[in-house]
Design a protein that fits this description.
It is a single chain. By secondary structure, the protein is of the alpha/beta class. The chain has a domain of about 180 residues: Rossmann fold (3-Layer(aba) Sandwich). It is built from 10 helices and 7 strands. A 7-stranded mixed beta sheet has the order 3-2-1-4-5-7-6, with helices on both faces. Helix 4 links the parallel strand 1 and strand 2. About 40% of the residues are buried.
Length: about 270
Amino acid sequence: MTDLSHGHSPLPNKRDVAASFSRAAGSYDSVAAFQRDVGQQLLTRLPAQLQAPRWLDLGCGTGHFSRALAERFPGSRGVAVDIAEGMLRHARPLAGAEYFVAGDAERLPLREQSCDLLFSSLALQWCGDFAAVLREAKRVLRPGGVMAFSSLCVGTLQELRDSWQAVDGLVHVNRFREFARYQQLCAASGLRTHSLEQQAHALHYADLRSLTHELKALGAHNLNPGRPGGLTGRARMQALLAAYEQFRQPAGLPATYQVVYGVLVKD
């Protein structure tokens, strides 16, 4: 049973997620400015006095933050874990971490009390069982260790969701956990909550095609189970464009991401 199961459809199948992000490995960095911005903000939230001789970059993607962590903690040794083999193949030659390992956040391939910092930026929204992720974090962290994560919650891409709702009422946009659910699960995790907040990031696009191309290049386009299959007809696309146009602002068409930033400590 996932923690998204009450009244919601389940999260995407892990194999679909891994395959989608593997395919996107080559194009990811060219469109990942928002992802880098969020990860950067997460780095600034780390406790100032934190020492992390051993760290884990969970959902490392192309390894951007593995390299940032290696720089932040000179002389440290890191493990980068991702469910998508394609991302790891891309990340390995660029170094940063000592090891690049294929693995699942709900069953980490690490020993107990083996790291001082578990850093995970914009990966855990794909995990159906966030309680299991927190249990694993608690298991692999040493006493005094920190779990720092950013994720997405309900309200992400709401403009796109509302536009599709107006067209056909089907789910074309990935579903995410509610912020209140993150609060409950973190409170029940046995880790101390140092900080947990939700922040909206609004991006703007010249047109809808730019947004949908970017989602595809990131590997983050619609991965919902039971998503509508087949080609979307031209008339439906025209209706979608018209519906989305109603959100237009002077800066362009907005796409709002509701980002969760959490820093938890193992006492």
